[in-house]
Amino acid sequence: MAPSYENLPLEDEEFDESQIDFTDLEEQYQVRLDEGLDAFVVIDGLPVVPEDNRAKLIKFILRKLNSVGRVKDDGVFMPLNEETGQTEGFAFVEYSAPAEAIHAVKQLNGTPLDRKHTMVVNKLTDIDRYGREGRVDEEYHEPQIEPFQQKEHLRSWLGDPEGRDQLVMYRGDKVGVFWNNKEDPPEQVVDRDNWTESFVQWSPQGTYLTSMHAQGVQLWGGKAWSRQKRFSHPGVNLVDFSPNEKYITTWSHRPLQVDETHPVPSLSLEEDGKNYIIWDIATGKPLRSFATLDVPTSTDAEGNPVKKKMQWPTFKWSSDDKYVARMTQGQSIAVYELPRMNLLDKSSIKIEGIMDFEWAPATPRRDGVKTYEQLFCYWTPELGSNPAKVGLMSVPSKEVVRTRNLFNVSDAKLHWQSEAAYVCVKVDRHSKSKKSLATNLEIFRVREKGVPVEVVDSIKDTVINFAWEPKGNRFVLITTGEIPAGAAVPPKTAVSFFAPERTKGGAVGNFRHIRTVDKKNSNAIYWSPKGRFVVVATLQSQQSFELDFWDLSFEKPKEEKEDKDVNANLQLMATAEHYGVTDIEWDPTGRYVTTVASAFRHHMENGYHIYDFKGTLLREEHIDRFKQLLWRPRPPTLLSKEEQAEIRKNLRNYSKLFDEQDLAKKNTANRQVVEARRRLLEEWQAWRESQIEMLKALGAEIELNGGRVLKEEDGAVEEVEEIVEEIIEETEEVIG
Amino acid sequence: MRPILLSGHERALTQVKYNSDGDIIFSVSKDHVVCAWFSHNGERLGTYHGHQGALWTVDVDPTSTLLATGGADNTMRLWEVKTGKLLKTWDFATSIKRVEFSPDGRQLLGVTEKRSGHLSTIVVYEINPDPETEQTNEQSLRIVCDESKATVAGFSYLAKWIIAGHEDGTISQFDAKTGELLYSTQAHEPDMQITDLQWAPDRTYFITASKDKTAKILATESLEVLKTFTADTPLNSAAITPVKDYVILGGGQAAMDVTTTSARQGKFEARFYHKVFMEEIGRVRGHFGPLNYVAVHPQGAGYCSGGEDGYVRVHHFDKPYFDFMYEVEREQANL
Asked: Where are the WD repeats (chain B) (predicted)?
């Protein structure tokens, strides 16, 4: 019998509360009472002086003590040793508030007084807590070193025999990692409820999956999807990884609160009041923390304050994780060296007026430069009579490699090509009257001698989007005309393709316009990570959801004459539509494209589509409250250039093998489906037969007759004659 | 399959029913009027006037002589089909959400709403099939649903049990003689209302539709879930087709949740699923509001749907509908 209220034993006679040993619980949940001594600090390390000099010494240290708070009147008690008549070298100090005492400990502990004496400041309560006899073990115990435990292989997913890619899907409250199975349902690897609280993110090489929590950030990985690291940062909003997954930056809009009443694991008082923490992923320890810089509030033309968008990532990493830099807008860039996180040359780089900067996404290989360097590109607007400037700076030398002066600049955007061979500065220029806008492209050829700059100024309209071909030298841009004020419909856009001219000797020639497709709505460009293919799409639109799949190196049939001048052959392969699309992503191998209608932005037909690179729809699925689909990135290949070339040469043989595999898989899958259906049908028919037998046994005539009640007259056949007359034509004639 | 549009109602349809011969369709709507239509051409046969409030439900007896209706005016009424004469009015404290005749037409059940202190009940009356006689005022059975209100109910084969669907997603089985609760099962998601319950022709199994976006086929005797059909929108109705092994589901976002951007967003489509394989076969568009009820021709010749948009759409199935077969079905048919 289940226990209910009635038969609960009223009193357990053999039970004696006093016999339970509560000491462990008491210890665990011991409450630290406010002892009223929180405003006291103990100062040690003071000089030992005779009584006569005591007042002088007190006056001296008071000067220091009052710098962080207000010491109560007569708040310093410096006891005398009765035997020697000298001070003991320590003093008790009472501040007017406990917060000041905490502050004093933070600020003054370790302050040198003179050459011999250094002040040691501790809270009185701490002395009581740790200093009392027995509280701290007198004997040294060697710390226990945990035995080494073999960790899971963090890159095991790369060993998939079919070379499939993984993706993470966040839908509803569930986060799951799946294998991509093309048109078949993705195969689940792991699926967990409430794995994250706001979103998930892969690390740049796919080793870790990041989950966000109110308490901080967690990294997951390995075959079992176990927790790899945990970074406690209460109220964290965003994270950013360094390119090689060595470091992670966490940011919260709320300054951290770390003190004795709010302890946070692995954070110290150092981190109090900070917004950013840069962590070492391997150790899980914070390297350095920073507070958000106050952006000087600027005003627009009418004098209203302009709300500045936060730049993310604020701390930008050089491609090799060696440097991380943050810009103070309009003033300087602070470059920090890893792993010590010290300011490079102990000072930030002053660049007056700086608006934006970007690191080269790969280690640059400049012509004639042998030494190690990283480059970043920055721009400054027109200041007084000085022109606007775009510059390239080399680190660690801090040498400006190249600058270029520009006029009438209203805005600029910096676009690096993925191998750092080019950087394109998209300059929005206004006419003298400041009425119309046009865009120039200033392309810095980083690898060529002296970094020549090529200007593309044939564009009449404003460029709203620009993207380099990864590992290539072509680019796509989208322009739009003037936006009429108050127009409900966004203006039509035009998509333009550019490629370098073909030159003798294989050098990259000048960039030339290939083709413009106008009267489009497109606003987003997604290049395949391997180059050549590009998806031009319309996102965030109410009316249009087009996806255009372009091939820039289309292989024409031989008889057609090829355009010899330009290194491109453009072809629109397919156009697709995904209602309500919000995000588009290529898989890391450039084989598939996923489009997502995410519940983060709207709640209509949430779900995803998978296309192949040609734009054929492979799979679509609607999932309620579908939020994210992210491909797991792959680390750079380990194969040498020669090995890759070898594979490319034998591609035909390989593809034959894969085709066979695909076919075999499909056949077995079909067979399985047919088998399953056959089984279902047989089961159903067997069940139906048993039910009909039962009805027959019960004599249920009406039911067996499909619900029709047989009436007496049903036996007699009633004949109904129906005559249908169709009037084809009617004419009236007056006879007379 | 060009549908016939029946546009005789001024407000949202709540239920549509074929008679057992399939030649007449009865429809009720929130505009207080019951309509009868010829199913083959959509001509209106007549209307039944008298209700003072929105109508929720209609049923016709197996011989097409008597018609029962129930609505928000807290009455359940019995009409003569042929003449439109009001034969009987039963008054209740709350509105009537569902009426249904027993397979032999000699019993009528009604489901009453739970409101203002009145619990939801399932009441049963003995019916005299002769329209000339006086009907009884005496309830032969009264089941009080005190746990969760009943939304739909019906008689099993031989009127052995009463099966009811509840607001909390449960299905329960009552003894139709004693009213004793025999068994109850959480067939649908908890707290997701059962919106419809329709029988297979021989009443050994039935289909339920729910706001949890699924429809399920349950065995009458064991209440075991045999099949589950998953849609992407809350369902208002589900029907089983005779002849072919299909089910038809109807639903759509509730009117208050519908966005104004695009009609396709509402998912106002009738969805066809294969009954055995539980796979979606096709959809029929047309309504521009949620489908409140779908009913299938008893001989499987067509179906009709009543929508929130105030229209009844009557469809007659074409040859391809009957020809369509899965590979394994064809195998069996050729044996």
From this structure: 6-47, 48-89
* Test mutation, A681, A701, A713, chain B, max B CBs within 10 A: A681
List of residues 6+ apart from A163 with CB closer than 8 A: none
**Omega prior to A633 cis, within 30 of 0:** no
The per-residue pLDDT for range B84-129, each reduced to its tens digit, is: 999 999 999 999 999 999 999 999 999 999 988 899 999 999 999 8
A interface test, pick of B203, B279, B328 with most A CB neighbours within 10 Å = B328
Q: For residue A579, which residues of chain B lie inside 8 Å, CB to CB?
A: 262, 264
Angle at B218 between CA B212 and CA B224, to 5 degrees: 105
Query: Which CATH number belongs to the domain containing residue B243 in this structure?
Result: 2.130.10.10
A624 has a pLDDT exceeding 80: yes
Alpha-carbon distance B115 to nearest alpha carbon in chain A (angstroms): 32
Residue contact A604–B261, C-beta within 8 A: yes
* Angle formed at CA B45 by CA B40 and CA B51, multiple of 5 degrees: 130
Question: Which among A604, A694, A711 is the nearest to B265, CB-wise?
Answer: A604
pLDDT (tens digit per residue) in A144-196: 888 888 888 899 999 888 888 999 999 999 999 999 988 888 999 999 999 99
Residue A218 is inside which H or E element, if any?
A: strand A216-221
Q: What share of chain A is helix, strand, coil (3-state, %, to 5)?
A: 15, 35, 50
Give me the interface pTM, i.e. the ipTM: 0.89
C-alpha dihedral sign at A108, A113, A116, A121 = negative
Q: So what CATH class is A40-131? A: alpha beta
How many percent of chain A have pLDDT more than 90? 33
CA distance A200 to A173: 12
Please, what is the average pLDDT of chain B? 91
- Tell me the Cα Rg of chain B: 19
Give me the residue from B104, B232, B262 closest to A702, CB to CB. Answer: B104
| Structural domain spans, chain A | 40-131, 196-292, 315-457, 651-695
Which pLDDT value is given to residue A71? 84
pLDDT above 90 coverage of chain B, percent:
76
Best probe of the B interface among A542, A702, A710, A718, by most B CBs < 10 A, is A702
Q: Do B62 and B105 contact (CB within 8 A), yes or no? A: yes
Q: Cβ–Cβ contacts within 10 Å for residue A698, how many?
A: 13
User: Coil, helix or strand for A427?
Assistant: strand
Is B205's Cβ below 8 Å from some Cβ in A? Answer: yes
Provide, as residue numbers in chain A, all residues whose Cβ is less than 8 Å from the Cβ of B219: 687
User: Which region holds residue A566: left if phi is over 0, alpha if psi is between -120 and 50, else beta?
Assistant: beta
φ, ψ for residue B256, nearest 5 deg:
-70, -20
- In chain B, pLDDT over 70 holds for what percent of residues? 96
Q: Which residues of A touch B201 (CB under 8 A)?
A: 703, 706-707
Question: CATH classification of A315-457 is 2.130.10.10, yes or no?
Answer: yes
Asked if A709 and B62 come within 8 Å (Cβ–Cβ), the reply is yes
Name the residue with tokens 């609160």.
Answer: A257
Distances (CA, A) of A100 to A37, A256, A274, A466: 12, 19, 19, 54
In 3D space, the residue among A143, A142, A95, A83 whose CA is nearest the CA of residue A123 turns out to be: A95
pLDDT, tens digit (0-9, with 9 covering 90-100), for B238-291? 999 998 999 999 988 776 665 554 555 668 899 999 999 999 999 998 888 899
CB contact under 8 A, B203 and A703: yes
Per-residue pLDDT, averaged over A582-593, amounts to 93
Chain A nearest-CA distance from B317, in A, is 19
- Closest residue on chain A to B266 (Cα): A604
Instruction: Please give the residue range of the domain that contains residue B202.
Output: 4-334
Lowest mean pLDDT among A43-57, A488-502, A546-560, B158-172: A546-560
Contact A703 B201 (CB under 8 A): yes
